[in-house]
Amino acid sequence: MSYKTIVGLEIHVELSTKTKAFCSCANEFGGEPNTRVCPTCLGLPGGLPVLNENVVNYSIMAGLALNCEIQKVSKFDRKNYFYPDLTKGFQITQDDMPICEEGYLEIEGDEGLKKVGIFKIQMEEDTGKSLHTETYETLMDYNRCGVPLIEIVSKPEMNSGREARLFLEKLKSTLKYIGVSDVKMEEGSLRCDVNVNVVDETSNRKTQVTEVKNINSFRGVEKAIDFEVQRHIKLLEEDRDEIKTTRRWDDVNNETILMREKYTVADYRFAPEGDLVPVVLSDEWIEKVKERLPELPEAKKNRFIEEYGLAEYDAEVLTSSTQLANYFEEVAEHFEDRNMISNWIMTEVLRRVDNIEDSFDLPFGPEDFASLLKVIKEGKINNNAGKKVLREMFEKGKNPNEIIEEQGLLQISDSSEIENIVENVLKENTQSIEDYKAGKDRAFGFLVGQVMKASKGKANPKIVNELLREKLNNL
């Protein structure tokens, strides 16, 4: 039998505005519980919502970055349901008239380049947070109530857990790049629900859609989908069916667990939000927001390949964060060997940086890093000495030339001085000379090592090799 997996994603992204969506409370993570609240975000009588203009601007930016059509007129609705974290008894969201529609993201799918459609992007507010204690009590923190969200709803056009993970990774990178969200899953800034079912392509029978919630990593999304696919295939093989359900992902046991029957649209009793007027956008407003949009990751990667002559993998790594990409370009202004910059950043710099997505604040500037690369390129110090200098730069933030001078790391490039060392080494290693003449290649490497040892590692290796080979061939 042949089975086809169908996956759609619903992604909630908290926007990084200074204040909440419909009130002036601070939009910040953490803080003492229930200290960043007011009558509006608590849903108290008399508290009326006032739309934060930057929520609209950030939503437009996200829509443009995700190739969406920006709707000139959109409206807010009330999504009704009862839960302790929703004080009003309804959520302000958008239903049939969202701010963005018909977008897409391209990923490297299972069968090559694939365009995954985005059904809509809607503005809405976040709910509070339930804290469950060891004594089986539930405490409520409403600081998160009213935090601005965009919900990004993909079309069901992904066909594996891997494709869903790649979609999420690219989405996260794009939203981080344009600065509308910090997209930190560990802080709840990016949350994802999965919808998955399976079609038997022989009989055209399909399983009911399962929604999976509470997934806290992209790898978890991939594993949850893979688990559900196997569970759905088993349902088809056993000729069983089930109603639409909502399940949660158990990271410990790597399985999904039934939570409840899945809500339908009718359950939410959508109705227009009477306290907010429709959002009407002019061409000038959209164009003004478009001008604020930075260069997107894919465009920057292609430019790095074309402008700097980098390999595709190098360009992809270097453009994975705006800070890293900016640092590379700042170094490139002072040093022309762009591939050398790339190699040193990816091998020696990134292994000393914990998280390039959150911070790329090095203890030395791009000019100092360029200065180090120059002295290595010019042969004034060798690679090993360069790595030693870079380590000191990380630990003490010193200028590379200062470190080189303090530690006496400059290479000996004077041919006459190196020639004297070579001659002394040959006098002391007559057996190695005989071995070299007998065709034993290791003898040459041994002699090079002896010269480097005698020079305390300072002799220019290229000159050492040339002089040593010349002397041996003339003996």
Helices and strands, with pairings:
Elements: E1 3-14, H1 39-42, H2 53-65, E2 69-70, E3 73-74, E4 77-80, E5 90-93, E6 100-109, E7 112-125, E8 129-132, E9 138-141, E10 148-154, H3 161-178, E11 190-200, E12 210-215, H4 218-237, E13 245-250, E14 255-261, H5 265-268, E15 271-272, E16 279-280, H6 283-291, H7 297-308, H8 312-318, H9 322-332, H10 338-349, H11 366-377, H12 383-396, H13 400-407, H14 415-428, H15 430-437, H16 441-454, H17 461-474
Parallel strand pairs: 12-13
Antiparallel strand pairs: 1-10, 1-11, 2-6, 3-16, 4-5, 4-15, 6-7, 7-10, 8-9, 11-12, 13-14
Summarize the main sheet: 9 strands, mixed
Counting H and I runs of at least 4 residues, what is the number of helices?
Answer: 17
Rounded to an integer in angstroms, the radius of gyration calculated over CA atoms is 31 Å
Molecular shape:
elongated
